[in-house]
Amino acid sequence: MQKEYTKSQLALRNGQDRDEIWVAYLGVIYDVTKSRLWRRGNHYEHWAGQDLTDELKDAPHTEYVFDKFDAIGVLKK
Hints:
Strand content: 25-35%
Helix content: under 10%
Structural class: mainly beta
Number of strands: 6
Largest sheet: 4 strands, mixed
Strand order of the largest sheet: 1-6-3-2
Distance between the termini: 15 Å
Shape: globular
Number of helices: 1
Radius of gyration: 11 Å
């Protein structure tokens, strides 16, 4: 079972407040810290530390991009 994190805990992993850079998609939290595209806590107009589910429809890629990253937890409902 994966650890649950609140939206507030996710928001702290934005690449600014802590070294960790996390994003959520469909309730799963991914660690994107090692990605050069997320190095400063943002990726184009998207910001780390939040749920990107609704924003994916505007991206030039599919949800399979998350297969590259480790799922480290789930977003608490």
